[in-house]
Each structure stands twice: as C-alpha cells, then as structure tokens.
Amino acid sequence: MSMVSKRAKWWLTAGAAVLLMAATVPVAIWVTHTQSAQLENTRQRCEGKKQIVHTVIVKGDTVSPVHTEARQCDSLTITNLDDKERLVAFGKHDSHISYDGVSERVLGRGQSLTVSLGQAGTFLFHDHAQDSVKGTFTVTRPK
Rounded to whole angstroms, what are the CA distances from 32 to 21, 24, 25, 27, 41? Predict the structure, then answer.
C-alpha cells in the first residue's frame, strides 16, 4: 500500500480547492446573467421610479413613430390597429432576441404588447410576417 505524505496531501487538497473555486466563478457569472435574473434585477432597479410609457402604433402597414427615445425604467407599448394579426418580434428578421423576456408575440387588432425598458442600447422590432413593418427604440441610462 502506498502512503501519501502529509505534504502531498496538503498540495492535493489545495489544488482541489483552487480548481473548485475556479469552476465556481464562471457558474456564478452564468447564474447572475440568466434571463430571469436580469429581469428581476431590472424590476428591482426600476421599482418606485417615475416611468414614462412610450406608445408605438402599427396602422396602415406602418409604425409610428419609427424610432423611440427612452430612458431605462420607462416602458414601451406597441399597439396593433391594423385589421391583420402581427407577429411582433425583437431583433433582426432571422435572429430574434429576447427583450424583457419577450422574443415575439402575436397581436390581433387592438391588442398591445408592453415591455419594461431595462436594457440600454438600440433595439429593432418588426412584424415577422411583414418585415417592412418595423421600428427601433433606444434606451439610455439615466444621468
């Protein structure tokens, strides 16, 4: 039977601890960047703050306004007033993204979709069935 010295046991234990810590950091980063964690962070960040509701209307196969400027914690409501259903999606036509937990939503006549604007940047939304019906919104951080 092979005996491992106390020094070798110490180094093996220390090495195992370092590997465990090295594996824990990426897992912790992944967990805090999941979509549900980001949604909850946004909700908590915006709780109790004055929020402006920006409205976009889809009518006559056009979006008005075509571009919306907003601040974090505002919200954006997209309303379909056309006689046809709209499949409102975020991102480019072939590579949708999720914004506020929504990647796409079917809107019938008179229906709306509201998203909380927690993520800063410029984003595109479009009707997946009619890509020419599209708009953008820019979300900036409060000063």
Answer: 17, 12, 11, 9, 9
In whole angstroms, how far apart are CA 128 and each of 27, 77, 86, 87? 35, 17, 8, 5
> Cα–Cα distance between 99 and 96 in angstroms, integer?
10
**DSSP H helices in 33-116:** 35-46
Closest by CA position to 100, among listed 112, 117, 76, 113: 117
User: Tell me: the pLDDT tens digits for 65-91?
Assistant: 999 999 998 999 999 999 999 999 999
Q: What is the spatial distance between Cα 77 and Cα 57, in angstroms, rounded to a whole number?
A: 8
> Cis (ω within 30 of 0) for the bond into 65?
yes
- pTM tops 0.90, yes or no: no
Alpha carbon distance 63, 22 (integer Å): 49
